[in-house]
């Protein structure tokens, strides 16, 4: 059972707001949110799911080499993204599509990555949303180093939340077993770096269930390194927001790293190359559908008086964005051939220059343009 | 100003100068702070620059390089010390799949000026994992630059050039050469880092090597001269990219090439030099290019290192074979 006594939750599966002493401080943070912000939570979750489905369709139609769906994990992602402050830096894994969008990254850039047009996709300096990283857990160390740099820059613990920075790194239950994830916890704690480790426990690596990675709840990993850690209901966007806000503010104020384990579930396949029916049972999938992050939050908004018009509008917006995404995907062109030699190095490099020239001349020898 | 320095001290002074010149330069590694590193290359630097610029890191090589990448993203220019050649492998993924590929992944929007210093090579009688020459792994990886100074003068200048490079540089320090002293002109303007250099002119056979091999090639040239054979000795200095012009010019003159290295010969730097010279100077060659390498076995127990590593005799044997064609 993924939820434990430690699991923090604000929103029950039927959309009612829960009261408890243990969650009172988080409840206070959520009570401070205005209606527009709550609507944004919903908009981002629904829109990303819509685009995610569109991308899956594009893959099946041969337009993408692969798609990595985030279906089911929207609350963990959207809540935590809103929990950060705009000047915080986010180190994603490869499934954090809603966070990319919230940070202003065009969804098409993610498509470009999975269509084989680029190995990067966006300029992380603008969005403070770093590039996707495909070698599991390597980004946890980049984030730890970046957070050490925040400390060296003196951008931590000054008491000014608008100047002090934190960073958040996303990784999965599978990645938690990698050496790098553990080394990152060591470095972060050793240097008291302003970083929040956000582990989305979606219960499976590809086919391997989380019990193979750990016999005890994963948030205890953080505790084992001496890092204050939380386990949350990752399908509850409100608790994800509130705990991330608290954790990032603690980190930026100089209290050292924090660790959040979000209990969630990927409703879809690991990627479009995967077949979950080989390793998951239907009962389990049904159970998690009942815990769906979006329907739960919709019930909550309706209970606060949000009317059909709003939900219809979000749906229409999503459809429009999806159709726009499709059009722009189909219009995408491959990069120029010689782009493969560009930016391998920052400074001039004789081998790149020579091989770029050679390929151009070779291609031109067939009568094309050099 | 000219000073008589060991390679270890010369690199130490080069690091100090780079750190004085640029506050974003920071050092990271195991035991490099208070102790000054197991080879004392960073001695005194923590005293001068403090623990925020000379970081005694946790004992985790992937962690050192991975966090250095994050620090570079933040605008720092980290210089990482790997304690010994044989301990770079835990960091291999962060170097090869992360550091080397960040620049292209970022499409030029960000540079990754990280230096990885690795004391390497044999001749010191040490236990397993402390005498290896793993440079070929990194030379094979696009996105990295790889250099190796053979002299105190190059140590002083090249470490500064590596730090000011906007690309990742793997900096191999031949530990057999850490202690012999020679003159370093600390005020000189050095030539480019990626340049191979003729260090002794000759006319019969060209011999090429890097790191600790250079001194051995010079010894061999001295012995050969006594026998009336004139060797032209070239110090590669840069292993990636390799500067072929001086090598090709020399081979055009001598018609013969011997490449010496401490690493095993399979898919090695010496193989690369041999293949390229065969491609580009075929008609100048009077004899096949001959490699003098370590054997293709793991570094043996130190008692046997004299048989495993190239020696002056084996280099001269290769010279004789080359001249026999
Ligand atoms: C170092 C490494 N090993 C293996 C893989 C192949 N792989 C990609 S995703 C994945 C499962 C990852 O599971 P988890 O960390 O739980 O993240 P999730 O995909 O569930 O979000 C595997 C094995 C990889 N990308 N990197």
UniProtKB/TrEMBL annotation, chain A:
Question: Would the keyword DNA-binding turn up in this protein's UniProt record?
Answer: no
Instruction: Provide the GO MF annotations for this entry.
Output: oxidoreductase activity, acting on the aldehyde or oxo group of donors, disulfide as acceptor
Q: Which Gene Ontology BP terms does the record give?
A: branched-chain amino acid catabolic process
The Dehydrogenase E1 component domain, residue ranges: 43-307
| Keywords per UniProt | Oxidoreductase
Q: Does the keyword Oxidoreductase apply?
A: yes
> Per its UniProt record, what PANTHER family does this chain match?
2-OXOISOVALERATE DEHYDROGENASE SUBUNIT ALPHA, MITOCHONDRIAL
Protein name (record): Unannotated protein
Taxonomic source organism: freshwater metagenome
From TrEMBL, chain B:
In the record, what lineage is assigned to the organism producing the protein?
A: unclassified sequences, metagenomes, ecological metagenomes
Q: Which cofactor does it need?
A: thiamine diphosphate
User: Which keywords does UniProt give here?
Assistant: Oxidoreductase, Thiamine pyrophosphate
Q: Entry's Gene3D superfamilies?
A: 3.40.50.920, 3.40.50.970
Q: Is Oxidoreductase one of the keywords?
A: yes
InterPro entries in the cross-refs: THDP-binding, Transketo_C/PFOR_II, Transketolase-like_Pyr-bd, Transketolase_C
**Which residues belong to any copy of the Transketolase-like pyrimidine-binding domain?**
5-180
- Which molecular function GO terms apply here? oxidoreductase activity
Q: Per the database entry, which stretches of residues form a coiled coil? A: none
Query: What's this protein's name?
Result: Unannotated protein
């Amino acid at each position: 059972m993924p939820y434990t006594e430690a699991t923090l939750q604000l929103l029950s599966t039927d959309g009612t707001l829960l009261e408890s002493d243990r969650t009172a401080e988080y409840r206070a943070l959520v009570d401070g949110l205005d209606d527009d912000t709550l609507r944004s939570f919903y908009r981002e979750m629904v829109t990303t799911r819509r685009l995610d489905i569109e991308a899956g369709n594009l893959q099946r139609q041969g337009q993408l080499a692969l798609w990595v769906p985030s279906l089911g994990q929207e609350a963990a992602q959207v809540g935590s993204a809103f929990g950060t402050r705009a000047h915080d830096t986010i180190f994603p894994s490869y499934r954090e599509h809603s966070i990319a969008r919230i940070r202003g990254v065009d969804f098409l850039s993610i498509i470009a990555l999975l269509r084989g047009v680029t190995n990067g996709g966006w300029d992380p300096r603008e969005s403070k949303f770093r590039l996707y990283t495909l070698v599991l857990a390597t980004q946890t160390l980049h984030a730890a180093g970046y957070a050490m740099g925040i400390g060296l820059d003196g951008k931590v613990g000054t008491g000014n939340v608008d100047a002090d920075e934190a960073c958040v790194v996303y990784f999965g239950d599978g990645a938690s077993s990698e050496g790098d994830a553990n080394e990152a916890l060591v470095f972060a704690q050793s240097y008291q770096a302003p970083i929040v480790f956000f582990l989305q426990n979606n219960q499976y690596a590809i086919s391997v269930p989380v019990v193979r990675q750990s016999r005890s709840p994963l948030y205890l990993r953080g505790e084992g390194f001496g890092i204050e850690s939380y386990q949350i209901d990752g399908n509850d966007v409100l608790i994800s927001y509130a705990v991330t806000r608290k954790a990032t503010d603690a980190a930026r104020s100089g209290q050292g790293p924090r660790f959040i384990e979000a209990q969630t579930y990927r409703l879809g396949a690991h990627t479009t190359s995967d077949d979950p029916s080989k390793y998951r049972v239907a009962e389990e999938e049904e159970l998690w559908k009942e815990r769906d992050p979006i329907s739960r939050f919709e019930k909550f908004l309706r209970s606060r008086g949000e009317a059909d018009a709003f939900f219809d509008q979000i749906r229409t917006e999503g459809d429009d964005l999806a159709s726009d995404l499709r059009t722009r995907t189909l219009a995408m062109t491959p990069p120029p051939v010689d782009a493969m030699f560009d930016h391998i190095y920052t400074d001039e490099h004789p081998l790149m220059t020579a091989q770029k020239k050679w390929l151009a001349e070779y291609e031109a020898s067939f009568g094309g343009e050099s | 100003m000219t000073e008589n320095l060991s390679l270890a001290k010369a690199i130490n002074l080069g690091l100090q100068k780079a750190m004085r010149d640029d506050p974003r330069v920071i050092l990271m590694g195991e035991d490099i702070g208070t102790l000054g590193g197991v080879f004392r290359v960073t001695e005194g630097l923590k005293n001068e620059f403090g623990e925020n610029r000379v970081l005694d890191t946790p004992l985790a090589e992937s962690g050192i390089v991975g966090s250095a990448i994050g620090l570079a993203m933040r605008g720092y220019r980290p210089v990482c010390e790997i304690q010994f050649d044989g301990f770079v492998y835990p960091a291999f993924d962060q170097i090869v799949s992360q550091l080397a590929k960040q620049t292209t992944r970022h499409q030029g929007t960000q540079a990754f000026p990280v230096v990885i210093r690795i004391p390497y090579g044999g001749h010191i009688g040490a236990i397993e994992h402390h005498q290896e020459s793993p440079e070929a792994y990194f030379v094979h990886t696009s996105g990295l630059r790889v250099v190796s100074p053979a002299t105190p003068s190059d140590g002083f200048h090249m470490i500064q050039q590596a730090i000011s490079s906007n690309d990742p540089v793997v900096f191999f320090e031949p530990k057999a050469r850490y202690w012999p002293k020679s003159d370093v002109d600390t005020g000189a303007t050095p030539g480019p880092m990626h340049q191979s250099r003729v260090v002794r002119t000759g006319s019969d056979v060209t011999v090429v090597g890097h790191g600790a091999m250079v001194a051995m090639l010079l010894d061999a040239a001295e012995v050969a001269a006594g026998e009336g054979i004139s060797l032209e000795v070239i110090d590669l200095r840069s292993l990636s990219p390799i500067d072929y012009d001086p090598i090709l010019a020399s081979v055009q003159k001598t018609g013969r090439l011997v490449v010496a290295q401490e690493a095993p010969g399979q898919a090695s730097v010496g193989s690369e030099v041999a293949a390229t010279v065969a491609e580009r100077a075929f008609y100048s060659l009077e004899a096949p290019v001959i490699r003098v390498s370590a054997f293709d076995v793991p570094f043996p127990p130190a008692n046997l290192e004299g048989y495993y590593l190239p020696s002056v005799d084996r280099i001269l044997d290769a010279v004789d074979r080359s001249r026999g064609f």
